[in-house]
Sequence to fold (223 residues):
Amino acid sequence: SQTIHQWPATLVQPVGSPLSLECTVEGTSNPNLYWYRQAAGRGLQLLFYSVGIGQISSEVPQNLSASRPQDRQFILSSKKLLLSDSGFYLCAWMAGPNYGYTFGSGTRLTVV
Amino acid sequence: KQEVTQIPAALSVPEGENLVLNCSFTDSAIYNLQWFRQDPGKGLTSLLLIQSSQREQTSGRLNASLDKSSGRSTLYIAASQPGDSATYLCAVQRDFNKFYFGSGTKLNVKP
Fold:
């Protein structure tokens, strides 16, 4: 069966420090992968999605970037964190247009 | 742009009650609609996916309906239990890679 892993679960980082969040999917090949952010009191915001290795689409211009170095690995990065980057980051995957999303357990990021 | 609204924002009911959560969307040209459950501090758990050609889906005590022409979906929970307490989110798939999420309904089922 397919599973999705996200780590770390929680992270506290100072302003100006770098960020790397990792997401991996098991049990499937060539999944579509997504990064979402859920800020306090706000809905889910799509940040990036990827339909294949090295293919990244950005939905919101911001301080973050994404990379997909392997088929089942999706990484969210920042060179210098801002206070506004705090939030709950969720990775998701989708096998095809009629399968819907499967989400990971999320990473709670607090920038101090 | 697709706007997704969920009403009510919060709901508190006694255990055993049947309840309906509502989701409305502005653009009826959608692929699919998906209902999720989110427990505090956790990721989203998929409950039901309704494809655009379907009108409803059922899983256990949950039933979700979809009326694309009116831009509405409902999630019906039968015989609610305290373990059903969570935030329920609906998401509308407007394009292949884009889901638009509502802000959720926070449900509290009292023992």
Observations:
- Chain B is about 0% helix and 60% strand.
- The mean pLDDT of chain B is 94.
- Residues 38 and 81 of chain B are 16 Å apart (CA to CA).
- The first strand of chain B starts at residue 4 and ends at 7.
